[in-house]
Design goal:
globular, Aldehyde Dehydrogenase, Chain A, domain 2, Aldehyde Dehydrogenase, Chain A, domain 1, 2 domains, 15 helices, five-stranded parallel β-sheet, alpha/beta, about 500 residues, binds nicotinamide-adenine-dinucleotide
Length: about 500
């Protein structure tokens, strides 16, 4: 990646974007638009269509038509594979352009956006393109006078709603397996981060995906998202976002057609440092990265640091040192390590968390302030707070910003009790040289993923999903495909 190429892309003006329905850009039915504000400098960079319920109905009808006439759902797996591979190629060829577009509207540092958004989206389309012709039906072990066949059939029309953090990566985790299984899609991106997903929808048609199979309706969650989740003609909803919206989706389902809802929600993930960790310097470095990368706007961020009493002071000092040394700033600068907070309201909410935590008795060790205000952008100094108690707001609730809550513990039992003492269960980390303890903690922590002697890594081969109030679905891996199929039994009397 060259800084000059990034600068040239950033200098281009962005034309207003409409929805993408039936293979074409389209304005909202009432012509309304929303401004897209860049967190880099607080300036309006373009407009998107502000969708209406009738836009959603049109997109759903179009997706249904496409599904029923079989233009995609009834094509040979080998043909679907070709299209998904081609789409992956196109994304890779345009990876820098797509990454810059994404950074402009969501503020993720460009190095991360390139890898975790554009390149990861390409890899995801390839992974599910490769997987789709490895899904076999079954013959049931019935008595010999009967043949019981179990078919995998696509569910039909998939409604997808995604958040503003890593919209392309998370969107692809849903779009790719849904398309691989032969479904049609209506996707609603976050109103503040729609640009990359609109681009992918265009590229999908360029790659050979029939028009009408993958539609994007932009706009407000309370209008477009609600209409989509209430639609009687959407068969399943796949969602990533907050628990508040996840709850609403379940209500919408109950009020409409009882569609299945798969929810990937928030977290307050414990990262547990035992005094016998194999490499405390590495643990401190990765613990800092595990909360501060992308300004803490990562669902699996290790936002609760639990540190064994004997090493607490020196470990916290080391994490603070990393926090203070990060280069925070313009996310389109290749030297930047931590980019912008996504919006002014998120920044204000982060600062309020810090204020409340101080009132509750936590100690502010570093950060806690807005910085680079002169740019007009939304930046926050990585923040470390110690003496956070299990009953505190900062311990129990997701900040979704660069704020680390530190709590000390004495014994393994204490650590496990604290780890499980929230309503969330998305991710966790355990640092220890003791193999038996590592296994005990993996078994005892109630979360979808437990990292051992590392934090935050994974790839497409393993599922990502939560337990408790962190959700109920899984993105990534072959398991993610299950939700995009219905099982159909054929019971044949011989
Ligand atoms: P959010 O719930 O506010 O919004 C998510 C999406 O839902 C957006 O597209 C929004 O427009 C839409 N929406 C809002 N209100 C709606 C409604 N009434 N009906 C239908 N749709 C509606 O979440 P956010 O602030 O965009 O994202 C941050 C949250 O997402 C955090 O809690 C984070 O932990 C979570 N997240 C989870 C994962 C995961 O894999 N578990 C990954 C990334 C983010």
């Amino acid at each position: 990646m060259e800084q000059s190429a990034i600068n040239a892309l950033r200098a281009q003006s962005l034309s207003p974007r409409g929805h993408f329905i039936d293979g074409r850009g389209q304005a909202a039915s009432d012509g309304a638009t929303e401004s897209v504000i860049s967190p880099i400098d607080g300036k309006v960079i373009t407009q998107i269509a502000s969708g209406t319920p009738s836009d959603v109905d049109q997109a759903v009808a179009c997706a249904r038509r496409a599904f029923e006439d079989g233009r995609w759902s009834k094509t040979a797996p080998s043909a679907r594979k070709k299209v998904l591979f081609k789409l992956a190629d196109l994304i890779e060829q345009r990876a820098l352009e797509i990454s810059v577009l994404g950074v402009l509207d969501n503020g993720t540092e460009i190095n991360m956006a390139f890898k975790a958004e554009a390149m990861s989206a390409a890899a995801t389309f390839r992974f599910y393109g490769e997987a789709l012709d490895k899904v076999y039906g079954e013959i049931a072990p019935t008595s010999p006078d009967v043949l019981g066949l179990i078919h995998h059939t696509p569910v039909g029309v998939v409604g997808a709603i995604v958040p503003w953090n890593f919209p392309l990566m998370i969107g692809s985790w849903k779009i790719a397996p849904a398309l691989a299984a032969g479904n049609s899609i209506v996707l609603k991106p976050a109103e503040s981060a729609s640009l990359t997903l609109l681009k992918i929808a265009e590229l999908a048609v360029e790659a050979g995906l029939p028009e009408g199979v993958f539609n994007v309706v932009t706009g407000r969650g309370s209008v477009v998202g609600e209409a989509l989740a209430l639609s009687m003609d959407v068969d399943i909803m796949v969602f990533t976002g907050s628990g508040t919206t996840g709850r609403r989706l379940l209500e919408y389902s109950a009020r409409s057609n009882l569609k299945r809802c798969y929810l990937e929600l928030g977290g307050k993930s414990p990262n547990i440092i035992f005094a016998d960790a194999p490499d405390l310097a590495k643990a401190a470095r990765e613990s800092a990265a595990g909360i501060f990368r992308n300004s803490g706007q990562v669902c699996i961020a290790g936002s609760r640091l639990l540190v064994q009493e004997d090493i607490h002071e020196e470990f916290v000092a080391e994490v603070c040192r990393h926090a203070e040394n990060y280069r925070v700033g313009d996310p389109l600068n290749l030297d930047t390590q931590i980019g912008a907070v996504h919006s002014l309201s998120e920044l204000e909410a982060n600062l309020e968390f810090v204020e409340k935590a101080e009132v509750e008795g936590a100690q502010l060790r570093t950060g806690g302030v807005r910085i680079l205000g002169e740019t007009g952008g939304y930046y926050m100094q990585p923040t470390v707070m110690t003496d956070v108690k299990a009953e505190d707001n900062l311990f129990q609730n997701e900040v979704f910003g660069p704020v680390l809550a530190v709590t000390s513990f004495k014994t393994e039992e204490d650590a496990l009790r604290l780890a499980n003492a929230t309503d969330f269960g998305l991710s966790a980390g355990v640092w220890t040289s003791n193999l038996s303890r590592a296994h005990r903690m993996v078994a005892g922590i109630r979360s979808g993923i437990v990292h051992v002697n590392t934090y935050g890594g994974s790839d497409l081969t393993v599922p990502l999903g939560g337990v408790k109030q962190s959700g109920n679905g899984h993105d990534k891996s072959l398991h993610a495909m299950d939700k995009y199929f219905d099982l159909k039994t054929a019971w044949i009397k011989l």
